[in-house]
Amino acid sequence: MAGEYDYLLRIQVADMKSYDRFYKRLVNSVPGLIDVTSSFAMEEIKFTTALPLAPSGK
Are 11 and 22 within 8 A, CB to CB? Predict the structure, then answer.
């Protein structure tokens, strides 16, 4: 990662109430934490970490 973000946390919670509890615990437990930005995915369309491998040509 480069740019504005220093850390990326990927969490999964049951609902927004659970996220709110997580968020409050996070900001209250990390000294010096000043700015937090959140993004939400409402549903998962596709999830994969596999990268396509090109043939070596041999």
Answer: yes
How far apart are alpha carbons 44 and 49 in whole angstroms?
14
pLDDT digits (tens, 9 = 90+) for 26-53: 889 988 887 888 888 888 888 888 888 8
- What pLDDT score was predicted for residue 20? 92
Question: What is the amino acid identity at position 33?
Answer: L
Q: Where are the domains of the chain?
A: 1-29
Q: 46-53: which pairs have CB atoms within 8 A and are 24 or more residues apart? A: none
Q: Is the pTM of this model over 0.70?
A: no
Of 5, 4, 23, give the one whose Cα is nearest residue 13.
23
Q: Where are the beta strands (DSSP E) in the chain?
A: none
* Distance, CA of 2 to CA of 52 (rounded, Å): 24
